[in-house]
Amino acid sequence: MIDWPEILRRSRQGNPTPPRVVSRSEAEWRSLLSPEQFEVMRLKATERPFSSAMCSRFEPGLYACAGCGEVLFDAGSKFDSGTGWPSFSQPVGDAVVSCVGDETGGRQRIEVLCNVCQSHLGHVFPDGPGPDGLRYCINALALQRVAAASVAADDDRNPAEGSGVEQAVFGGGCFWCTEALFARVPGVLQVVSGYAGGHTVDPDYDQVCSGRSGHAEVVQVSFDPSRIGYADLLALHLATHDPTTRDRQGADHGTQYRSIILTGSERQQALAHEALRKAAPLFDAPIVTEIRTLKAFYPAEAQHQDYYRRNAEGRYCQLVIKPKLEKLQAVLADG
What we know:
Layout: H1 4-11, H2 26-32, H3 35-41, E1 62-65, E2 71-74, E3 78-79, E4 87-88, E5 97-102, E6 109-114, E7 120-125, E8 135-138, E9 143-146, E10 166-172, H4 175-182, E11 188-196, H5 205-210, E12 216-223, H6 230-239, E13 248-249, E14 252-253, E15 259-263, H7 266-279, E16 290-293, E17 298-299, H8 307-310, H9 315-333
Parallel strand pairs: 15-16
Antiparallel strand pairs: 1-2, 1-9, 3-4, 4-8, 5-6, 6-7, 7-8, 10-12, 10-15, 11-12, 11-17, 13-14
Helix pairs in contact: 4-9, 6-7
């Protein structure tokens, strides 16, 4: 008989404190994921065995959560289990996945979840190789492969940082503008509009606009560090909005429109301070951009995602966002 509590202990996961939090409504998940992914990741279905070529691919690389981009597994721990699902001997760190008991269908198993967005990934079994003799049996639909690299499990950085995908969080006025800008930067893989920097848990747009949540409108930028560095993104951020106006960008007034950089590591924080120092001589007024440690990022409602692409002919997009995009192209052209 399998000792499931012992397997849970050996997995060393349990319910660790997540490195960050991503929370979305069901409607937002449905808009982000394919129907098949939604069934697996949000409704806890299991894909057909041998339905993905990912089972037979073993080239170097990393595997991130398809729902939030958090790096979860390194190809170095991937092995051919013969089961028909991608299998790994361990995750990249002690906090990126969580393991909970699962007794659905009359079977006793241990479910594996992304610890950042709580998406269902698969199950863990006691028939794997070292170091713990475990097999993390993961649905391919729940994973996205990212660039080759290695992530040290004991690193104190953002788990995605220094690997195939890094993340940055910036605020510079209305997130419709900021999202449209970063979505056009080479090396940027994904931009999600959201809220951060405040105290209200999982706020909505009205709460943020009221100023009572403390949050700013921000974007979470996932990028490939082999193509563009965090320092480059900081420079672009400071060059494409006015970091000298407190709680205001153009006609948009309020604390939610403040200029802010939210850092995920000591390295990012040091680079952010250096970026502000370098940018200071370029402005006639003092820079008022906040630099704060990122505690949690909350994605905005679905209607705020990819706003410019869906409303490019609208008055706000034409009068406010389009000139910013033209300025971005000039900045990129200047190198």
